[in-house]
Amino acid sequence: MSQKKKQKRGNFQGSRINPRHFSKGQVKFYIILVPLSLFMILPVVMLINRAFMPLGELFAFPPHIIARNPTMNNFKSLFALSSTTGVPMLRYLLNSVIVTVLTVLLNLVITILGAYTFAKKNFKGKAVLFEINQLALMFVPTAVAISRYLVIVNLNLTDTWLVHVLPLAAMPVGLFLVKQFTDQIPDALIEAAVMDGAKELTIVRRIIVPLIRPALATSVVLTFQQVWMAVEASNNYVNNDTMRTLAYYLNSLSTNNTVAAAGMTAAASVLLFLPNLLIFICMQSQVMNTMSHSGIK
Amino acid sequence: MRQVKRQKGFNRKDGRAYLLLLPYILLFSTFILIPVLIAVYLSFTYFDVINEPTFTGLLNYITLFTQDEVFLKFVLPNTFLYALIVGPGGYVLSFLLAWMLAQIQPIPRTVLALCIYTPSMLGQVFIGVIWKTIFSGDQSGWVNSLLLQWGLIDTPIQFLLTKDYFMLIMIVVSLWSAMGIGFLAMISGILNIDQELYEAAYVDGLKNRFQEIIYITVPSMKPQMLFGAVMAIVNAFNMGWIGVTLSGANPTPEYSGQLITNHIDDYGFIRYEMGYAAAISVMLLLIVYAFNVAAHRLFGEKD
Question: Cβ contact (<8 Å) for B241 and A142?
Answer without folding.
Answer: yes
